[in-house]
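Before relying on records like the one below, remember that each one covers exactly one chain. Contacts with other chains, cofactors or solvent are not represented anywhere in the record.
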Amino acid sequence: MTYSYLLAALSGLLQVLMFPSFGYFLLAPLSLVPLLIAIARESGSRKLFLLGWLAGAIFWGGACYWIYDVMHRYAHLPALAAATIFVGFFLVKGLHLGLFSVLAAPLLKTRWAIPAVAALWGALEGTHQYLGFTWLHLGNAGISMSVLARLAPHTGVYGVSFVLALMNIALASALLRKPRRQLAWLVLLPALYLLPALPAPETGDTGVRLIQPNVNPDDLAGHGWSRRHLAEHLDRMEFLSAEAAAASESISPDLVIWPEYPLSGYFFADSSYRSFMERLARKTDAHLIFNAVDFEPSAQRRPLNTAVTLDPTGEMVSRYDKIFLVPFGEFVPWPFSYFIDKVTLEAGDFVPGTEIAVAEVGAHRVGTFICYESVFARGVRRFVHGGAEVLVNISNDSWYGRSAARDQHLLIARMRAVENARWLLRATNDGITGIIDPAGRLVAKLPSYEEGVLAGRFNYSSRMTWFTRFGEWFWWGTVLAAAACWFIARRLA
């Protein structure tokens, strides 16, 4: 029994190692093998649940270790309280793998164990997006596996997760000396080579400037900046946006993009700030995309996290209110709201938007989503389905400190680019600002923790992938397949 718990713990550790900051993505096809062997060795729902829960807790605690610092440093919790919240986080998130282990046990005894357990993995993994916090799917580790990543434009990240899970189960079955005929499902893997290759590297034809202001949120603690400090900062942002990169650019930019960052811009309520942004759009002679705070029209006046697009004349052509808010970042779930401050500096919990907005940029269309929304495949896909020919992600990762969360967030954004076959332009406060091509390659980036301008190129595209057209069809397929296989396995037991 102790041996089984060691195997489960090893599985959790391998999952941590395959993601940043370690990034050993080649561990993905075998990271679940120790847990699967432990499940096959044991019986009883309680033991099975504890095995999975242990692996899951180690994974979530090890991969998301940065949550403690966010809670302590920016939510202003004492160290003990922050540690309690962090421990509670990974213990609760581990429940998913506990449930997986209980449900997988009867499936492992069937002739169709390999596809059935892979479907179960995919089905449960996709539920994270509806349960408060979603972050690293198994399939995200496949973004650097060019052949496996060919699935993403068709199935989304869920198909990549399914195949990686299938490989894990096949290896576990071989080690458990299951009949060789059960491994016949592996003959499907070479079919991946029949899928269209991801787009080849290309040089874009359209210019963009991504502005990285490098504002430390610690500098805004308490009363924030004075009016003089704010004016100096805006003067600097004007220089970065309009002049800093001009000498090195071979073509004028279509887009100038500011990130989401700790300094709230009240574009709709502050006439002087609005005039500044309108003048800046005219000065750059480009479409200007930036973050602003607005307030709902109700008596409560709760804030909205908004992306604004101005045309080269300074006229607003689009606004998008963030739909997927960050728990503890932009709102504090009950009952934690009685004793925890949210991370952002805006007074009051943010309220989510309700509609996707795609901006008209000359003859093209741009979809801008905000920070944490990159983790929701279904949400980003709606921008492209609505006509976006390029994706823009404005983000503030400074709350993560100097942790692996930044690289993890970038990894997720790369998957969104591949799923929708779109260039993704990512402007952040202090890193990682970069340009991602439709194959998920990071073709250019700025150094983190430095002020700078990334002047680069991209292309617009109107191609619609299967995933863009039909959304999470593959995930729903795994839900139905896993349910059917489990009930049949129980009937045959």
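The mean pLDDT is 92.
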